[in-house]
User: Fold this.
Amino acid sequence: MPDIVEWKPFREVSRLRREMDRLWDEFFGPGRRAFRPLEAEWAPAVDVSETADKVVIKAEVPGIEAKDIDISLSGDVLTIKGEKKSEREEKKENYHLVERSYGSFSRSLRLPAAVDADKIEANYKQGVLSITCPKKEEAKPKAIEIKAT
Assistant:
């Protein structure tokens, strides 16, 4: 007797989406889907690293001015929001290829340790946003000395 499997329609839609993406990637090349909207929500690539004293987040947000980026911390979730405005003007230009992403973005990350919200610093240089989050004292590792007897 065959196993009874619960039908999940969204799983089927997701599978269909992956197959269609694969088909477009084979036809146009990776990342060059013909019907992808020119302006849609996108998310910057991030790196999150941790040392004994701090958590550092680096996000790639080229083409955006620092004043157009908002950073907030709620509990242990850091959120980066902003908008990359399209540079295209409505002229009689025919675009043959558009790969750059435009539009608003929001990226939320759960921090791996408790941080001191009052001491967070953010810097923006050459399209990379660096956010340094010093850890709270109780989150820092403590070395315990072993006494030989």
About this structure: The CA atoms of residues 60 and 76 lie 21 Å apart.
